[in-house]
Every structure is written in structure tokens, then in C-alpha cells.
């Protein structure tokens, strides 16, 4: 039986084959992307591709620059040809929960800019409903994070926790906190997103709805390709 890393590695060739000379790439965040970035660097070097990257986190940007990938800021980009990222959950409609790495706002900015957004995951990320195996991250302002958490809990009857890393509150690259919401079966992701995004102090939610064009899944039986147009 293949382990999770092996399943992730299986997905990389299919996404690498979609990278062409002259592209501006949106490069995501997380363990799968950390496996992909060195492969992108190899591709650029082998084929002498002129590739520009925009990254969804400082961590990814640092890794890419270390490997001599040309990285620029998102405000200096007019368009993104292809965005590549992982996900924490993928449902049957290719809707996602993302933000396990805390980069959900920047991920959403870049993924929505992209002409095409491709997601690479292992089979453990496939779920029947969003929230089945993972929390919903919500990026919030530090000033009123507690009030936001209590409003969500009292209105939606779910548990909300401020994310902590190494015994201190986790802070995003934007200087904000993450609230992790324990979702229940039956919650409509569209309605929940609309409720959350209109709370004062909420920057963005980890719902990525109707944005993925393709999901490449590493499974014990091989690579599975799920396309938005086939839904």
C-alpha cells in the first residue's frame, strides 16, 4: 500500500505536463506544493522555459526563489495562466476546503485570477460533504476575533477555535488570526460562506466554491482526473 507522500507524488506528472513556456503560474501552499516546486524548477531548467510565478505564501515564495524560479508580487501580474494548489477537502462537485496552511486569502486571490485552476490531492482528501474530515478555516482580524467566534458559535451552533501553533496564536502572512470551525453534516457551503463573509472582521473563508477546473487525485489504483466540465 502506498503512503500519503507516494500518492501525492503520483499527481505531479499530470500537472507538470500542463505547464508551458511563457506562463505565469500561481503556486500554492502546503505539503504537496513543496514536492511540486522542485519539479517546476527542474522543468524550467531542462526546457529553458520562461516561467514567472506568483505565490500564495511567503514560505512557498522563499522555496521557489531558492530554486531560482522567477517570483513576482501579485500586484505586478495582469493575469495568471495556471494556478496549482492542494486542498484539505474535495467534495463530489469539486468544491473545496482550503486553508490548512493558513494561506487561504492569498490562495483565493490567485486561484480566482487564474485562467485555469488545478488541484492536486491524495485520495484521503475526497469527502461526501465539506467539513466531513477537516475544519473550515476563517481568516479574521485580531481586533475582534473573539466576538466573531462567539457570533458564529451562537448563530450556527458549531464549535469555533482560534488556531494555535507552538502554544501561541497562529498568525497569517497578512497578520491575522485563523478561526477553525467544526462543520456539521447538512450545512450548505454557499449559505455558510455568505453568512461568514459578511461578519465585520472576517477577511475570507476557506470555502473554495465553483473555482477548481480540475482535481488530480493520487489513489491506490493510480491517478484519477476529475474535471469540472464532467460534473
UniProtKB/TrEMBL annotation:
Gene Ontology biological-process annotations: D-ribose metabolic process; pentose-phosphate shunt, non-oxidative branch
Pathway: Carbohydrate degradation; pentose phosphate pathway; D-ribose 5-phosphate from D-ribulose 5-phosphate (non-oxidative stage): step 1/1
Reaction catalysed by this enzyme: aldehydo-D-ribose 5-phosphate = D-ribulose 5-phosphate
Statement: the UniProt record of this protein carries the keyword Aminoacyl-tRNA synthetase: no
Organism: Staphylococcus saccharolyticus
Gene Ontology CC terms, in alphabetical order: cytosol
Purpose of the protein: Catalyzes the reversible conversion of ribose-5-phosphate to ribulose 5-phosphate.
Active site annotation, chain numbering: 107
Subunit (UniProt): Homodimer.
GO MF annotation, one: ribose-5-phosphate isomerase activity
A Pfam entry, by short name: Rib_5-P_isom_A
Family of the protein in this entry: Belongs to the ribose 5-phosphate isomerase family.
Protein name stated in the entry: Ribose-5-phosphate isomerase A
Keywords associated with the record: Isomerase
Enzyme category, top tier: isomerase
InterPro entries: NagB/RpiA_transferase-like, Ribose5P_isomerase_typA_subgr, Ribose5P_isomerase_type_A
Amino acid at each position: 500500500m502506498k503512503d500519503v507522500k507516494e500518492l501525492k507524488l503520483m499527481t505531479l506528472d499530470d500537472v507538470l505536463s500542463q505547464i508551458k513556456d511563457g506562463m505565469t503560474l500561481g503556486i500554492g501552499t502546503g505539503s504537496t506544493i513543496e514536492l511540486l516546486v522542485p519539479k517546476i524548477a527542474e522543468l524550467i531548467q531542462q526546457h529553458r522555459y520562461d516561467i514567472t510565478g506568483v505565490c500564495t505564501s511567503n514560505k512557498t515564495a522563499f522555496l521557489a526563489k531558492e530554486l531560482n524560479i522567477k517570483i513576482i508580487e501579485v500586484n505586478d501580474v495582469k493575469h495568471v495562466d495556471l494556478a496549482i494548489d492542494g486542498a484539505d477537502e474535495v467534495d463530489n462537485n469539486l468544491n473545496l476546503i482550503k486553508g490548512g496552511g493558513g494561506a487561504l486569502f492569498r490562495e483565493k486571490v490567485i486561484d480566482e485570477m487564474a485562467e485555469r485552476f488545478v488541484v492536486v490531492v491524495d485520495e484521503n482528501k475526497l469527502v461526501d460533504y465539506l467539513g466531513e474530515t477537516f475544519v473550515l478555516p476563517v481568516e479574521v482580524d485580531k481586533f475582534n476575533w473573539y466576538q466573531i467566534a462567539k457570533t458564529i458559535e451562537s448563530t450556527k451552533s458549531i464549535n469555533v477555535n482560534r488556531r494555535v501553533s507552538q502554544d501561541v496564536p497562529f498568525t497569517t502572512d497578512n497578520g491575522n488570526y485563523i478561526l477553525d470551525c467544526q462543520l456539521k453534516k447538512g450545512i450548505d457551503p454557499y449559505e455558510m460562506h455568505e453568512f461568514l463573509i459578511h461578519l465585520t472582521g472576517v477577511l475570507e473563508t476557506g470555502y473554495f466554491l465553483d473555482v477548481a477546473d480540475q482535481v488530480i487525485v493520487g489513489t491506490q489504483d493510480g491517478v484519477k482526473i476529475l474535471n469540472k466540465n464532467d460534473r
